[in-house]
Amino acid sequence: MGFLKSLFGKKTKKEDGPISQKQIELVQNSFALVAPIAEQAAGIFYNKLFELDPSLKPLFTSDISEQGKKLMSMLAAAVNGLNNLTTLVPVVQDLGKRHVSYHVEEKHYDTVGEALLFTLKAGLGDEWTEDVEEAWTTVYVVLATTMKEAAATVEVVE
Ligand code: HEM
Q1: Which of 16, 118, 124, 135 could lock onto 11 through a cystine, CB 3.0 to 4.6 A?
Q2: DSSP per-residue codes, 71-126
Q3: How many angstroms is it from 130 CA to the middle of ligand 1?
Q4: Which residues have a Cβ under 8 Å from the Cβ of 20 and sit 6 or more positions away?
């Protein structure tokens, strides 16, 4: 059983899980505000990411604006999928496994998380509250942990 499922499975009541129903709503509603400015958001994200760790640049070989669109649409799918974990978990696990072939390592997930939170904060302005920050942090940690856990099962052939 994956991290996401096991965490959610621990408690019988949904609101007692690591991501409460309220947090799911905060994340979904705040993402909806950023979605219309997805392209700018992607730009902010990559600028911040490469500022935090310039060594990540060479990992991104395809067109960065295409890459930004993929990242935002995947995030949208994940955010909307929080209500339907049975479907979301294998999708996120597969994504994590593919990231091994992009030379993504465990330690990179923290940097990406920091860049993502920075981007959301910039995009949301006054709508960025402590509760929203906490909800996004929780969701990112759960997604990243699910990806890393799946990635760890992949045999790397170099
Ligand atoms: C919640 C976390 C993440 C999400 C939702 C996400 C999403 C995506 C998506 C949708 C793609 C397109 C390709 C595919 O679907 O396989 C992709 C590719 C990629 N991601 Fe991520 N990613 C995440 C974390 C990371 C992290 C931590 C890194 C580390 C730097 C990273 C680096 C890359 C790279 C290098 C590619 C391939 C780029 C290329 O081919 O030019 N991602 N990611």
Answers
A1: 16
A2: HHHHHHHHHHHTT-HHHHHHHHHHHHHHHHHTT--TTHHHHHHHHHHHHHHHHHGG
A3: 27
A4: 14
Structure tokens at 12: 């019988």
**How far, in Å, is the centroid of ligand 1 from the Cα of 95?**
8
**Position in ligand 1 atom list of the atom nearest CA 60:** 41
For atom 22 of ligand 1, which residue has the closest CA?
71
Distant-in-sequence, close-in-space partners of 67: CB < 8 Å, separation ≥ 6: 42, 46, 60
Q: pLDDT of 69-92, one tens digit each?
A: 888 888 888 899 998 888 899 999
The model carries a pTM of: 0.89
- Set out the domains of the chain in order of their start, with CATH numbers: 3-9+19-151 (1.10.490.10)
Q: Give 131-156 pLDDT, tens digit per residue.
A: 999 999 999 999 999 999 999 999 87
CA gap 144, 92 in Å, rounded: 9
Index of the ligand 1 atom closest to the CA of residue 143: 1
